[in-house]
Amino acid sequence: MCILNQQLFAYVVLSSMVCSFICANQAHAQELPKNIADQLQTPSKKESDLTIEVVGQRSLELPKSAPIYRIEQKEIQRQGSKNVADILRNLPGFAVNDAGFGADIHTGTYYRGTSSNQFIILINGRPIGTNISTYHGNTDLNSIPVDSIDRVELSSGASSILYGSEAFGGVVNIITKTYQEKPETNLTAEFGSYGRSNYRASHAGGNEQLNYRFGIERYRIDNDYKVPVGAANRDPATGNLFNADTDTTSYSGSVSAQLNPRTQLDIDATVINSRRGLVYFGFPLQRDRLNHDAVSVGLKTRTQLAADQSSILNTSLGYAQDYFETTGPSGANSRTGILDTKAVTARIDHNWRTSPSNTLRSGIEVQARQLNSTANSTVPSRIAFNGVENRDTVNTAIFAVDTLKLTDKWELDLGLRQNFNSQFGSYLNPSIGSRWQITPQIAVLASATGAQRNPGLDQLYVYDTVHGWLPNPNLQPETGSTWTAGIDLALSNNSTAQINYFGNSINNRIATQATSPTTTQWANVGKVDTNGLEIAFKQKLSPQWSAFANYTYTDAQIQSGPDRGLQLALIPYSVAQAGIGYANNGWELKLLANYNGGTRRALFTSPGQTRTDFVPAFLNLDISTRIPLSAHTALNLYVENLADVQYERVNRIYSPGLTFRAGISAFF
After folding, report:
1. How far apart are CA 589 and CA 572, in angstroms?
2. Do the bridges between strand 149-155 and strand 68-72 make them parallel or antiparallel, or are there none, so unpaired?
3. DSSP string, 48-93
4. What value does the mean pLDDT take over residues 479-492?
């Protein structure tokens, strides 16, 4: 069956399910006893406060046993985050290597020891990227327009049952801004070190029945600062970092309509155009460029099927495209690689509170993915691999998570996700989780989930013209399990903490492997066991002052092959963030500290060789302030790396010393 016919079949199935859900739930909505609505109210104020303070306002769709962290729009603004990567950097569990000054996109973003193709990034509940191109990373986090973000939610555990086995590392859900009760226009202009400029504009308007928002952001930076001898992409003539400039333009928009008192329709779109130079940590001076054009469009409906909100039907249809074009020097060593990947996702899920003690969330999701690639090189040893690949795959999944309220304070989550993949057949992923509210101040939670991540289409079929990496059509899926256990604490009305132990055991991990001194190929390199500890603390010191601190320890140990017993390269043992902030009448001040230690280098080696040396640990201090100039304008100042220490971030890639940026923001 061709891919278009499979998509058509999927849409027919989804339409049929929608109709059957509506018919069934119209019936049971009328039959529910009236007293159920009274019993399904929100928890007591103390319990609700605990959830809000520790993990943010919990989404009704997510299992209670899943740890959730949330960062709001105001906090994002106070931290001066430039993009999603900056936001994630200040959340527990994240090590972000591939964003910031001179960053190399190949060094990755990691959450609890899992790489960016082992957790999923959603925008308003749907995948933002195609998740086909695993080499380039699922999504360029530098490119997502931060001005369109309302909040970011991070979840794990049974969330992977709802959003796919590829999400076994976790789920990052980016929620975009919506109507804010009155029309508003926002303008920002910022300038900073090393040719940095950033312009943002957005406008929102409408009313409760029909509202809209659109925005544009333009960002560029030269990244031509001094780096030490031996640094990646150091220009020997000037001593500066070379070919590390970035130029990105992002467009975003959304429309929301209240079709009737029980049905809401949301449409959103994001378009990204990114042009940048590539910094390669393992090669001589490079001149390769990367063009990345991305489109993400989604349509979502939310229908309240029962008068007491005990039955909610969500449907969504999404389209994503990532177009990557990598070009190398011209002449005898020219090379061009194109990856044009597309994904269409159709999904419905039904959240049904069947009784005061039971909630069932179930549904079906179909995702059709397509890859078109071109490899063209004039390098004599690579000409034989020139060619075109056109590949596609379809994955259909039926999922269900049932939450049983065993007592007033103890809930149990049971989940199943049955996948049907056109390449790797059918497989079942189960999950189990529990949350026990011991007291209004203490809650204990735990979960375990089965996992399978299939190889990317590029890893299976596409020759990498830049590195000379060979694909491997015999790759097997990564399989295993992941687990977490933790405690939520409300230490006082103004102080909360969350402590989590996490781990996973993954077989057939996929990575590049040297097969000869001149040949590297994607391969299943063996088993990796990960265990770690995650601590998050928040304190409201006064109405104006607040503080937070996060610490994550990750032991991602290789269990097979020549690197057995070593930490996975590029994943630090320890990351920590801490901050203290002041906010009063428009005045804001925040001091942020970031620590990173225990990262093993990963430079290219010959077969049988390994690297056991580590990047020196570093501590970075940043300060930001907002000074109101009038009721509608403010001056924003940021000074980063206050100690003015140039440190190696990872793999011979260095940060600059002290940097600054300043800007004016206005709203009216």
Report:
1. 29
2. antiparallel
3. HHHHHHHH-S--TTS-TTS-EEEEEHHHHHHHT--SHHHHHHTSTT
4. 93
Look up residue 200 and give its two tokens. Answer: 């943002």
Residue type, 377: S
**pLDDT one-digit tens code per residue, 451-467:** 899 998 999 999 988 77
Q: How many CB atoms are closer than 10 A to CB 581? A: 19
- pLDDT number for residue 279: 86
pLDDT tens-digit readout, 216-234:
999 999 999 999 998 989 9
The pLDDT score that the predictor gives to residue 174 is: 86
Q: Which has the higher per-residue pLDDT, 290 or 2?
A: 290
Measured in residues, the chain has a length of 668
- To the nearest 10°, report the CA torsion of 376, 379, 381, 382: -10
d(CA 462, CA 391): 10
The Cα–Cα gap between 160 and 139 comes to 18
Q: d(Cα 654, Cα 648) in Å, to the nearest integer?
A: 4
Statement: residue 389 has pLDDT above 80: yes
SS (H, E, C) 412-469: EEEEEEEEEECCCEEEEEEEEEEEEEEECCEEEEEEEEEEEECCCHHHHHCCECCCCE
For residues 322 and 371, give the distance between their C-alpha atoms in angstroms, rounded to a whole number. 10
The owner of tokens 């005045």 is: 587
In angstroms, the CA 102 to CA 643 distance is 19
Backbone angles phi, psi at 438, to 5 degrees: -60, -50
d(CA 90, CA 100): 13
Residue 661 has pLDDT above 60, yes or no: yes
- Residues whose CB falls within 8 Å of the CB of residue 191, separated by 6 or more in sequence, listed in order: 197, 198, 661, 662, 663
Q: Are 551 and 523 in contact (CB under 8 A)?
A: no
Helix H or strand E encompassing 173: strand 171-176
Domains delineated in the chain: 3-225+232-667 (2.40.170.20)
DSSP reduced 3-state for 169:
coil
Spatial distance between the Cα atoms of 400 and 159, rounded to a whole number of angstroms: 11
The SS3 of residue 308 is: coil
What's the confidence (pLDDT) of residue 31? 37
- In this structure, the number of other CB atoms found within 10 A of the CB of residue 426 comes to 10
Give the residue from 197, 80, 114 showing the smallest Cα distance to 634: 80
DSSP state of 163: H
User: pLDDT digits over 141-195, tens only?
Assistant: 665 667 778 888 888 877 888 888 678 888 888 887 776 678 889 999 999 999 9
Find all residues with CB under 8 Å of 19, minimum gap 6, and list them.
Answer: none
Q: What single-letter DSSP state applies at residue 262?
A: T
- Tens of pLDDT, residues 398-440: 999 999 999 999 999 999 999 999 999 999 999 999 999 999 9
* Dihedral Cα 462, 465, 467, 471, nearest 10 deg: 20
3-state SS, residue 105:
helix
Q: Side chain identity at 512, as an amino acid letter?
A: T
User: Pairing mode, if any, of strands 149-155 and 171-176?
Assistant: antiparallel
Q: Residue 64 and residue 92: Cα distance in Å, rounded?
A: 19
